[in-house]
Each structure stands twice: as structure tokens, then as C-alpha cells.
Write a structure and sequence with these properties.
- This protein has helices at residues 5-10, 14-19, 31-38, 47-57, 59-63, 83-91, 96-103, 109-128.
- By secondary structure, it is an all-alpha fold.
- The protein has one domain.
- Helix 3 crosses helix 8 and helix 4 packs across helix 8.
- The chain is globular.
- The model is unreliable at 15-24 (pLDDT under 50).
């Protein structure tokens, strides 16, 4: 029995997947594109969506890109250490309000949005600069 295209793609290491430039010239990923593609089903076969999902799965690679200053209260605060959970919750369809509420007792949509945006920016950075 032949593996599905998704199974075949999931067996390819993420760094190699990001190195493949499909559909013409390389276009950079924006945080907004990463955010929208995280909600898409990876089984649709779109190469950019698959690359986003593969990069998001490399948690250690993109969390390593988080600057140490992000943990200060005027930036991400406690959410900085919970960004992998934020991506998981967002991927599961939770609203930014619910994510913010899970991060802090008095969390709100803006706190959830800030955490989602930070994680998506890191994933986009990893996709755009895979060797760094």
C-alpha cells in the first residue's frame, strides 16, 4: 500500500522541507500568513501550509529565536514560556480571548493575540531563515 502524500511529506525533515522552493521564486513568509495557515488543515496538500505546519512542529527551533527581553512584563511576560501551548491552542481553534484567559487569570483577547502574533513571527522567521 502506498503512503498518502501527507504521510510522505511528514517523513521529510522540516529543515529540508523549508529548503525546497516550490511554485517559482521564493516568497518570504509573514507572521500573518503563518497565523492564517496554522488554522488550515495540512492535509490540503498546499506546500506553504505544509511548510508552516512542519516549522511549527519544530518547537525548539523557533522558541530558541525568542529574545530574552520578550520575557519582560511590558512584552510577553509569562506567555513567553508558554508559546508552544499557545500555538497548540490556536491550532485547535481556541479564540484569542480564551487563549489569553488560559495564560493569565485576568487574560483578555489582546493578551492572547499578542502571544499568537509573537509565536507566528518566530515561526515565520524560522521559515525565512532556516539555517540561522
Amino acid at each position: 500500500m502506498r503512503p498518502s502524500p501527507l504521510q510522505s511529506l511528514l517523513s521529510v525533515p522540516g529543515a529540508l522541507l523549508r529548503g525546497i522552493h516550490l511554485n517559482g521564486p521564493f516568497r518570504t513568509y509573514s507572521a500573518a500568513e503563518v497565523r492564517s495557515r496554522l488554522r488550515l488543515d495540512a492535509a490540503d496538500g498546499d506546500p506553504r501550509s505544509l511548510a508552516v505546519h512542519a516549522a511549527a512542529a519544530e518547537v525548539g527551533a523557533w522558541t530558541h529565536l525568542l529574545p530574552s527581553t520578550a520575557r519582560s512584563e511590558n512584552q510577553l511576560g509569562l506567555a513567553a514560556s508558554r508559546l508552544p501551548a499557545v500555538v497548540f491552542w490556536y491550532r485547535q481553534g481556541l479564540s484569542s480571548y480564551e487563549i489569553g484567559r488560559r495564560l493569565t487569570p485576568f487574560g483578555e483577547a489582546s493578551y492572547g493575540d499578542r502571544a499568537i502574533d509573537a509565536a507566528c513571527a518566530l515561526i515565520a522567521r524560522l521559515l525565512n531563515h532556516p539555517l540561522r
